[in-house]
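Possible regression after last week's pipeline update?

I re-ran a chain I had predicted before the update to compare outputs. Posting the input and the new output here so someone can diff against the archived version. Not blocking, just want to make sure nothing changed silently.
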Amino acid sequence: MTYPTDPAAPGGPARQGGGQRPLVGVVLVSHSAAAATAVAELAAALSGGAANVPVAPAGGGPDGGLGTSSDLISSAARSVDRGAGVAILADLGSAVLTVKALLADDELPAGSRLVDAPFLEGAVAAVVTSSTGADLDAVAAAAADAYTYRKS
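New output (post-update):
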């Protein structure tokens, strides 16, 4: 499931008509399905006008427990791919390694990129930036820049 839109729903690829370029998709890879889903929902909700940004969680292992699933990641990336690239954010080491392996084996849509960014803050920055119609480089840069956010 993608948040907040689905490829077949209004606001999916058909919305891209009228000369607008497609939006960069965002995939959130976590060891926990609940964490990935919650971050996807939060990023979508905090993005205000980003209701059309394709964002999908890819959390948990193949058995539904904690872990990482290459099948879930690949499926999520395909679900958000609109032709403008896919920014992939991962939470922990083996999630990063799984994404890197999928990229090396060309198992993800063309234009997919692993983004070095904090998981929650980077997800919000990526979704907000994608909502503006920015390209993959700008979405990745905004997510990565979230490392500099100071809380004190």
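Follow-up from reviewer: compared with the archived run. Helices lie at 33-46, 70-80, 93-104, 119-131, 136-145. Marking as no regression found.
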